[in-house]
Amino acid sequence: MSEERGASLQWLILLAALVTLGLWGADFISDQREFSDREVRYAAEMEMAFVKEMSVELLEQGVYEDLDALLQGWGKRHADTIELRLTAPTGFVIGRFKRELPASDKFTLKTQLRYGYEDQAELYMVKTLDAVNARHRLLLLQASGAFSLVSVLGVFLTYAYQRRKREAQRLHLLSERLSRSNQELEQEVQRRIQVENALHSEKENAEVTLQSIGDAVITTDNAGQITRMNPVAESITGWTQADALGKYLYEVLVLQNQHGAPLENPSDTLLRRGKVTGLGNHTVLISKQGRSFQISDSAAPIHGKRGAIEGVVLVFRNVTEEYRIRRALEESETRFRRMTDNLSEHFLYSHNPDGMFEYVTPSLTKVLGYSQQEFYTHFTEYMTDSPVNRKVLDHTEASSRGIQQPAYEVEMFHKDGSRHVLEVREAPIMDENGKVIAVEGIAHDITKRKLSEAELRLASSVFEETSEGIMVTDMDGVIQRVNRAFSVITGFSESEAMGQPAAMLRSGRHQDAFYQTMWKALKETGAWKGEVWNRRKDGSLYPEWLSITRIDERLSDKPQFYVGVFSDISAFKEAEQEIARLAFHDALTELPNRLLLLDRLETFLARSKREQEIDALLFLDLDQFKHINDSLGHSIGDHLLCEVARRLKEQIRETDTVARLGGDEFVVVLTALGSDAGTATARARAGAEKIRRFLGQPYTVSGHVLHTTPSIGIAMLPIDADNPEDALKHADQAMYRAKASGRNTVEFFLPQMQSSAKSRLKLEQELREALEKDQLRLHYQPFVDLNFGRIAGAEALIRWQHPEQGLMSPGSFIPMAEESGLILEIGTWVIKQACRQAKAWQNAGLPACPIAVNLSAVQFRHRDLVQDISAVLRELDLDPRYLELELTESLLLENIQSVMQTLAQLAQLGIRISLDDFGTGYSSLSYLRRFTLHKLKIDRSFIDDIPDSASDATMTTTIIQMAHNLNLWVVAEGVETTAQLEFLKQHGCDLLQGYLFSKPVDAASFEELLKAGKALG
Amino acid sequence: MRPIGILLLVFFTASPLSAAPRLLLGVHPYLDEQEVVRRFEPLAQYISQQTGQAVQVRVGKNYAEHIEVVGGDRVDIAYLGPSAYVRLLKRFGAKPILGRLQAAGKATFHGYIVTRTGSDVRRLEDLAGRRFAFGDRNSTMSHLVPRYMLQQAGVSVRDLASYRHYKGHNNVAMAVLSGAADAGAIKAEVLEHFRSKGLQALAETPEISEHLFVTRADLPPALVQRLRKILLDLKDSGRIAQVLAPIKKTATGIVPASGADYDNLRRIMQQVKGKDDH
What we know:
The complex is a heterodimer.
Chain A: H1 2-27, H2 37-61, H3 64-77, E1 81-87, E2 93-98, E3 106-115, E4 119-128, H4 131-146, H5 150-198, H6 203-212, E5 216-221, E6 226-229, H7 231-237, H8 241-244, H9 249-252, E7 254-256, H10 266-273, E8 277-278, E9 284-286, E10 292-303, E11 309-318, H11 320-342, E12 346-351, E13 357-360, H12 363-368, H13 372-383, H14 386-400, E14 408-413, E15 419-430, E16 436-445, H15 447-465, E17 469-473, E18 479-482, H16 484-490, H17 494-497, H18 512-525, E19 527-535, E20 541-552, E21 559-568, H19 570-584, H20 594-611, E22 615-622, H21 625-632, H22 634-651, E23 657-662, E24 665-670, H23 677-696, E25 699-701, E26 704-706, E27 710-717, H24 724-740, E28 746-748, H25 751-772, E29 776-785, E30 790-802, E31 806-808, H26 814-820, H27 823-843, E32 851-854, H28 857-861, H29 865-876, E33 883-888, H30 889-892, H31 896-909, E34 912-918, H32 925-930, E35 935-938, H33 940-944, H34 950-965, E36 969-972, H35 978-986, E37 991-992, E38 1001-1002, H36 1003-1012
Parallel strand pairs in A: 27-28, 30-32, 32-33, 33-34, 34-35, 35-36, 36-37
Antiparallel strand pairs in A: 1-2, 1-4, 3-4, 5-6, 5-11, 7-9, 8-10, 9-10, 10-11, 12-13, 12-16, 14-15, 15-16, 17-18, 17-21, 19-20, 20-21, 22-24, 22-27, 23-24, 25-26, 29-30, 29-37, 29-38, 30-31
Helix pairs in contact in A: 1-5, 1-11, 2-3, 2-4, 5-11, 21-22, 22-23, 27-29
Chain B: H1 2-13, E1 23-27, H2 33-51, E2 55-59, H3 63-71, E3 77-80, H4 82-92, E4 97-103, E5 108-109, E6 111-116, E7 131-134, H5 140-152, E8 162-165, H6 169-177, E9 183-187, H7 188-198, E10 199-204, E11 208-209, E12 212-215, H8 221-233, H9 240-243, E13 251-255, H10 263-274
Helix pairs in contact in B: 3-4, 4-10, 5-10, 6-7
């Protein structure tokens, strides 16, 4: 008996120690003390914040239905919640939970929710101040908050779990113990009653027994009135035996269940039923002084000698302490469960030494998607693949042999098929003999961490590998870290740079103000970017594009670092300068271009106005340059231009400027020619003449000796113009004048030139209108066939019947038409008019008369030429033989391939082509073979002097022979004398044209000639 | 040569005589799969009893897949929502119709565009510049038809201040009630449920034909005929509560239907698609 009690006491002490240890984990967070109202409110506020966050989430998703469920569920789970309500501003109650609780100790929390763009709702929460409930909540919140640090949680839970397991065993033992002690008590009571019966007369013995027994004993008579109680009973009930004697048992032994409801007295039950009875596990005894004790007891009848029940003996024991321990254990267990249930990245497990899993926390489902049952039965099948399987088994086996394993990582399959990386820690659990009885472990899903580690590695390699230099400094600008590109660009190695102020890179090219601005921007906005000149280790300077960003510590919001990212932009800078040079210089000659010239002119003009100094602007155009370009090719032309540029540069002073405007146009500005207009003009002329003569010297380019002369126009600045544009324009006009007066001369700008330029513009406008107003005419000059002595055709020549100036010849408006592009329209009109005329004469029954039309180069190059002509022919239904086209020689040389093609197409149409002005250009015989031609017109300059000029005569006869050899007809134009006629006739010229026969006449007059049909000459 | 050809022909065209083939009943996943199966099981059993052929319920992976499967004649019988039927028609052409559902004595249903009581929105036109709550994109009554009504009133979705698709009619109603939207579109029964909470009808939708049953295009006509009779006979069989109620609580039978019954919805959907497409 006493041995048993000793053992039980030992157990209790052990248990108490274990439980204290068990509670330690949670208790270091919060004392065992009661919670103040402030803390309870604080807990409720945290709860509120959480509910709010979830509600906003659901509102954002628009799932209002779920909100109601959320509030209901939350309210039900949190026993201190009286009301939880979410109301829209419209008054609509989106969700509500309400619990009927006595209305004491209430407090209310309210908060506004914002969701969507501008939507709102109000969350309303009523709680009770009940400290016990609130305490649970706080613990839970603190646990979820404070334990979020994974490692702490891991360690803690491992311990907690092991402890829990032991506690659970102990708990089991304890409850067994408790129930066993109940039975023991009953047995003992039975036994004592027997003893008592046996020693009925030996009251003293009984007294002794009662006094010495460790349990409380109360006896009653069969009416339930107390007859005796021992000291233990006295101490528990708070009654002395003297006071209690004769009282009814229920007066002394006030019993309640755990909810505070009164319980029937066991002795009453026994007296009523006549049976031994025990109390429930939660029986509370309220002492006389109002203290409560948790008791376990039993009652047995006292039988009289005749067997009748004479009374009741009630034996009970104060188990308050055991009860408290048990409750604490249960609480601890619940807490553990709640914590493990809430885990989302961990699960705990245990398996036996054979590797059979015995327990896993439900959080497994959150981590791997499988249910606990699936884990027990199908762990290896579902969650691992074979190499992993091996790894897990190896570890399991080692753990089972009692070997402490380091944590290891293993890849497992989630039920959804995704791979998760788990970090597993296992520990063998051994009994006192060192035998492994179980292995317990915790698995932590570190997939996310793994991913972020990979990201970190990536970031780090980007940091190292990027071609941009990166420098990290602390808040004082001391270098903390640099990357490889930093070293490449600056020449400083990492070790040289670390710990140095970033200012060591300063080049000294920037003022202090520059750095002040930079630091100001960094302090205010946390970022700066711009171009900085820095110094390399070797002392050389280089420009870099630098972008500095302040990196703030995530947790504290305190600025921590500056990160400077920069790239060497030396190459870029050089390119930039090159681009600027290209933009302002002519690529061919490297002279300033128009843009730069205009800019300089601005400066010159300002200065000359300010200093009363006169400048001269010389506008140069090379005579015949186009010819050189056309005949010898652009490459030769380009070389020539470069040579001209070189000569110009040689001729001027450093203060002067030479520019090329494009093509063969150059500008020279001679500066500071004096303040007197006369002197300055004389100097300008002298300078211009010098240039003219110098440029007029022969050039040798690629073996060709070339001649070109400049025509120079001069504008005096600021006399003739006060702005760059006018200066150029006026010098240009003067240059035109120089061209007009026979080239290779120098002309000054005169105010009247401007008016002539204006009149040119007016004329151009009038010419446009001439087409519409039908002021253009065709005149016709006959070709005469000497063999048959009759008119063999006509050349159509354009005239303009100007309303004021009368009939104008083509020389006075065709060049302008060519410049302005009007030539195309005019050309088309001419062809059409000529065809129309030819058709008209045919229809009038006159002799066949082909009409030749002059084609300008612009017209000939126009890609629609062939189509347009064939359309005209079709439209007028004219036989193509009646249209001839006259081309100039130079035109053939421009783009031989396409010219040949166009000529062939025209010939295919049936149109005849004649070559005009033959002998003036560079035409060679070999060229002529390559084109589809029909006629050659000998230039009138040869005809003029025959037969007197022997050379012209020879030339003419050679041309005639040559043309005949090529099966070409020969036409001589400008025949004015009978001597010419005779010579040409003698040398077999086929057709003649000239005043000797007829000047160009209007259509009506020509018609008369045709009608007359007379053989002219 | 010739006999062999005939033989082959017979071999490939003859249906096995051993057992009547199993019939597949395709249903869209308007609830989660198991729930759909549970609700259609009684009907499947009923058809099975009547035909002597096993009937198995097949739940589509999603609405689009369901239409695809029905269109491809991969199920024998199919249950379809009205808009799904119109889409089916457009993509795959007509299928034999067995009948349409009748609920509370009506083979058509309608919905409302609703506002809060006391709203200053009086006409559909007033919704320009307001916020609108639609239900699911595929929903006939909470999206397609009301969208058409808005269009007809000259309010395209672009004229709305904003619009949003909510999950289900209830959430649409609650969005309007809580002020997150000025108006929304819901079916009639949902309005009845929320009317007392402060919801009112702004406009009523046209009547749209109810859900219907079709068969695959190449089901033997005799079988189609038989299935049609089986379904239509349900009405007077006294087995509605057992067979149809699980599918729809208010079901009162299956009644004859033709493609023309869905013409108005077809026009509506064409309009909606034609104009302001998202």
